[in-house]
Amino acid sequence: MYDFKLLQQVTHQVKMTLIAVSGMFIISLISSILTASTVSNNLGMIILVAGVCLCIFIWGIYGAPVLNYYYFLKDITAGRSRHIKGIVKKIGESPVYKDSKLYFYEVLIDEDGEERLLLIDANTPKDIVKENERYLFCIHENYIKNVQH
After folding, report:
1. pLDDT attached to residue 47
2. Which end of the chain is more exposed for a tag (fewer CB within 10 A), N or C?
3. With a threshold of 0.85, does the pTM exceed it?
4. Distance of CA 5 to the CA centre of its chain
């Protein structure tokens, strides 16, 4: 499910978001300096504050989630993994906000008589597992990396 190509795509998204936010900040800084020196110091300050607020808003809405997903992918592709076998008992209906500030589907499995909660990334298809079927899960911590039937 996760490969180096996906990590490269997300890395590109992070870089583009950083470039866009930096560009917006530089444009607002230059326009506020020009406005403060030619028109009014107060108007220049208002333009700078509005530009900084817009940069913080854009980073919070677009940049931070992509950066969190990048760190998740980096950890899951480079970290240690293990294999477990189990029968899927229940799959969550909708994604929940968990751990790394990302959305996951909760998958409850029965592993040799013990229940275990695993997490499937909400950006992957939820229908890779079906209830009441046995699978071999490749997991990192409690995140599902790969599934084999």
Report:
1. 94
2. C
3. no
4. 16
